[in-house]
Amino acid sequence: MKHCNLLFQFILALIFFDLLSTLRVPQGKHVNVEKDDLRSKGIFGSLKSILEYLQLPQYRSLPAIKEMIKKYRKSLHIGKQLTDFLPGPRRRFIVIEGLYTSKRHAVAKLVARSLRGKHILNPFRKLAGVNTLPATYDTRRAYYSLTKYGIANLVPKLLALQPVVMERYWLDQAAFVIAKTFGENLPELDSGLYDWPSDLIKPDITFFINADNKSTEHSNLPNEISNFTLNILRVYDEYKKVMKIIEISSNQKLWDIVKEVLAQVRLLGPDVVTEIKKAQPIRLMD
After folding, report:
1. Could you say which of 69, 100, 192, 247 would form a disulfide bridge with 35 (CB–CB 3.0 to 4.6 Å)?
2. How confident is the model at residue 50 (pLDDT cuts 50, 70, 90)?
3. How many whole angstroms separate alpha carbon 118 and alpha carbon 211?
4. Which conformational region is residue 150 in: left (phi greater than 0), alpha (psi within -120 to 50 degrees), or beta?
5. Rounded distance between C-alpha atoms, residue 50 and residue 286, angstroms
6. Alpha-carbon span 9 to 43, nearest angstrom
């Protein structure tokens, strides 16, 4: 009898692992979302919308908000120095996203080392140090969105010297917010929610290290992928319909992932020549 129970449990485990590979396929119902309603949900599609939100009367005098703006001003000051150069050859801007922090971080560091590039974990240490995050959920979302623009101010000059390999750029924050806000019922593709901000520097290539059925980094229960993780995976599936994202299985050895990333980067060809476009200045609060 004992052997029968063990056999039964083994068969159930096999069925469970087989189903995990198909968990990403079912999609919830799509919902209609007005583009003007996005900011009310804490979703910001431009630097202007972030700053306008932070300058609302109920927020602009808060110490945490003032400190956030001060940090962003600092990035602008550094950014002005770093981007004040003639257009010319630049190196590759590579973004690596992923659900599991330790694996994504290890891959990004090894890729940067292999390319002799600059590894950046976002929020960048020099720009992220506010003493107290804002109290409300939406203002915290605005803060994290603002850090993406802060680090983007530093990227162009760095690219003149070496490749940049960045973790947790725009898609990391956007996917989290969309999954948290809408759950299984994601907005339609034409909602404007999946548009890359027109005033934010785009990476040359984006990698997404997906979830596997053996990681326990985000769960106390082994071999389980949470519903929230599945929702984030669904969001990335939507993003892949409107932009190029190279998805890589995390269910392989670390160096195999690194080799796959490097192979894709090499397919881009040699360093490119580009002109850094200067964005229109946006007035900050006094």
Report:
1. 192
2. confident
3. 26
4. alpha
5. 16
6. 44
Of 78-82, 132-136, 195-199, least confident by mean pLDDT is 78-82
Return the beta strands (E) in the chain as ranges.
Answer: 88-90, 93-98, 118-121, 164-167, 205-209, 246-248, 272-274
pTM of structure:
0.76
Q: What is the mean pLDDT of residues 131-135?
A: 63
Q: Rounded distance, CA 168 to CA 101, Å?
A: 10
Helix, strand, or coil here: 36?
helix
Q: Tokens for 68, please give them.
A: 């956030």
Counting Cβ atoms within 10 Å, is residue 137 exposed (0-12), middle (13-18) or buried (19+)? Answer: exposed
Q: Of 198, 204, 206, which is closest to residue 277 (Cα–Cα)? A: 198
Tokens matching residue 276: 């850094």
Q: Which two tokens stand for residue 26?
A: 């079912």
pLDDT in tens, 190-243: 888 888 888 888 899 999 998 765 444 444 433 446 788 888 999 999 999 999
Angle at 167 between CA 192 and CA 37, to 5 degrees: 20
The two three-digit tokens of residue 222, written as one number: 């082994």
Contacts of 233 (CB under 8 A, 6+ apart): 24, 99, 210, 211
Letter for the amino acid at 286? D
* The pLDDT of residue 169: 93
> For the chain, how many residues are written?
286
Dihedral pair phi/psi, residue 117, rounded to 5°: -110, 180
